[in-house]
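B., you asked whether I could sanity-check this one before it goes into the benchmark set. Here's the sequence:
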Amino acid sequence: MNHQKVIAIDGPSASGKGTVAARVAEKLGWDYLDSGALYRLTALYAEQTQTAWTDEAALAKLAAALPVQFSEQSILLDGRDVTQAIRAEHIGMGASAVAKLPAVRTALLQRQRAFLTERGLVADGRDMGSTVFPDAVLKIFLTADARTRAERRAKQIGAPLSGSLFDQILADIEARDEADRNRPIAPLRRLPDAELLDTTHMGIDESVEQVLAWYREKTDVKTA
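And here's what the prediction gave me:
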């Protein structure tokens, strides 16, 4: 089998896969794709254009023509910085809703594959290994328990680690897990050929080193 020069990292919301993927890409000198951002951008753009998250045909058109620009530090949607806006919890739920729709996934599929160049790509999401890059040289399922992920999300947005707001963050994460696992198209699951990386009790640096170690084992390539 000819493997693609891709490390595909899939996992649930707030598991830390984006941070790990970005740092692995930096270590290897590869490009980085945050596929979840594309679904969040679709949900946000739909909200901004008053398009229902259930209107599959209209959403597919929006997804195919997203006026988005990625840079190292920010994401621009129609010329406006939405780096923080797409991380809102309700936009995350919207991303799960639009990700269930086959036409939206089709519209974004080629867009995601176009990120792969000769440099190599580290891609994170929910179906990177199963659908977008099935021939990736390394597939990883990165997860952590729901409470740990809720604590990480709370810290990210400056929320307390207890009380009603935290309870809502935890409930939202659990609801999104359920939606992602049970959607009919490309559900979130660990593939038989994916390495399991549980980061519940691991820091970012340790997680990054584990990914690089697996990559070295797969390819006999030395990494910094």
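One thing to flag: The longest helix spans residues 164-182. Otherwise nothing jumped out at me.
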